[in-house]
Amino acid sequence: MTLYLKNTRYIDAETLKVSSTHIAVEEGARGGISLIDSIPAADARSEDDQVIDCKGRFVTRSFGCGHHHIYSALCRGMPAPPKIPTNFPEVLEYVWWRVDKRLDKDMIEASALAAGLQMARRGVTFCIDHHASPFAVEGSLETVAQAFERTGIGHLLCHESSNRDGDEIAEKSLAEHENYLASGRPGLVGMHASITVNDDLLERSVALARKFDTGVHIHVAEDVADEIHCEKTYGKRVAQRLQDFGALESPKTILGHCVHFTDEERRIVSRSPAWVVSNVESNQNNNVGLTGYDWVDNIMLGTDGMHNDMIRSAKAHHLVCTATEGIGYDEVYRRFRNVHKYLAQFDGVGDNENNLVVLDYDSPTEITDDNFLGHFIFGLESAHVNTVIAQGRVIMADRKSTLVDEEEVFTYAREQGVRLWKKLTEG
Ligand SMILES: [Zn+2]
Q1: Separation of 409 CA from ligand 1 center, angstroms?
Q2: How far away, in angstroms, is 70 Cα from ligand 1 center?
Q3: CA of 58 to the centre of ligand 1 (A)
Q4: Which CATH number fits domain 63-343: 2.60.40.10, 3.20.20.140, 2.30.30.210, 3.20.20.105?
């Protein structure tokens, strides 16, 4: 099957050059695109080829999220915690750990379907998720994977291993990674953060990642408490601890946040092939502090479960990092697009150039070959996403999913949300 996009103004995601062209989009996880002068006549096309007239709309590569927690999808409007948190460890204890302990398979499925649909609406076709469900570990990653696929979203998943709920659950989490990765699924080996991961779990997680030629995915120095705990318990900073266990050796490793690094930790990580993910809105929401990232090349952006909108993440990153490091528009965009560079390490994962958005972007000013970044920072919004193509397949057409019944997905999510909230109020 070839999908033809007729009459586009194509914005090349790398050069940012704009060209009036038609596009032939190849289907599949390894598919590409070609810019063509004319659409083949009907008798020269296959029966299952599809032509969409874009009527001069802008088309560009779709977006990817470098760090998400789709298990938070049912939390919007949930009951207040029993105690209002006054610091980040209390945010975890009274909010997120109370939620993730109560998740079951249906809630996980509903969360992934709802988040997948919301990502698709916003032109986000790939999600690197960090999943936590300590009392519903077994099979949870496959549940998330299948729900994402039903909504058309590509994925790189992991489970949040931790010693916070005891050794038995840590074992189950390791086993879940082993089973999921052994089944041939692409993924990472997830850990919560240094503060809840003991030496044994850290060592075995790194070994497991090595066994499957992948990386680890862990929160690092998100709050100062992670560093204080590490210095007190292990006599070293978090980046040093990770380096000592070999956790920074893989270019597939993802370190979330890295807010409270010393200069030495910045040196350790910037000299390693590991990737850093910035989530500035989450950092503000949790009041953990803010930082700049001008010390590291391998950096991408995420949402950290706050929402599903990567254009919003890029704009927030611009505002924060203008203050923290004087970032330029080009560097915001580079970090926004770096997720593709990271994902290119995973053959066949489904983040090729045949992932596209068609934008209803009607600007009061011209878009030229050298001013797209101004439009990206100040004009473009996810509300402009009209049609979304993932792995050469239309997954949203005119703002509606072509794959799932949206009302059905949200009805299911609301039902599961009510179940979750009831469990939360029952203690
Ligand atoms: Zn996170």
Answers
A1: 25
A2: 10
A3: 32
A4: 3.20.20.140
